[in-house]
């Protein structure tokens, strides 16, 4: 799940990535804005999900995926969209356009 917070004085959005997976012991976010390098997400006991916050420039789209336990790729099932990648699967899209 994605949630976004926009700032009045800055051209950026704070995006919160939240992800649940029944087999997850660890989850990493892998995205364009991390140069496709895995970033560890923190487990939130209260929400029983993994979370990561990132500030991103407004009015852009970014591709991302989740890596579960270092071997299972998954998408955000509530992403803003999906696009085919060169591996024969799809990437999730987060859109930072103000609505």
UniProtKB/TrEMBL annotation:
Family annotation (InterPro entries): Ig-like_fold, Ig_E-set
Highest taxon listed in the record's lineage: Bacteria
Protein name, per record: 1,4-alpha-glucan branching protein
Species whose genome carries this gene: Pseudoalteromonas porphyrae
CDD domains: E_set_Isoamylase_like_N
Alphabetized SUPFAM superfamilies for the sequence: E set domains
């Amino acid at each position: 799940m994605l949630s976004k917070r926009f700032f009045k004085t800055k051209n950026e959005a704070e995006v919160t990535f939240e992800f649940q997976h029944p087999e997850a012991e660890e989850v990493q976010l892998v995205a364009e804005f991390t140069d496709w390098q895995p970033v560890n997400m923190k487990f939130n006991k209260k929400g029983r999900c993994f979370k990561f916050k990132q500030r991103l420039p407004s009015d852009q789209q970014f591709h991302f995926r989740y890596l579960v336990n270092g071997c299972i790729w998954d998408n955000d099932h509530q992403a803003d969209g999906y696009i085919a990648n060169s591996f024969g699967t799809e990437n999730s899209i987060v859109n930072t356009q103000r609505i």
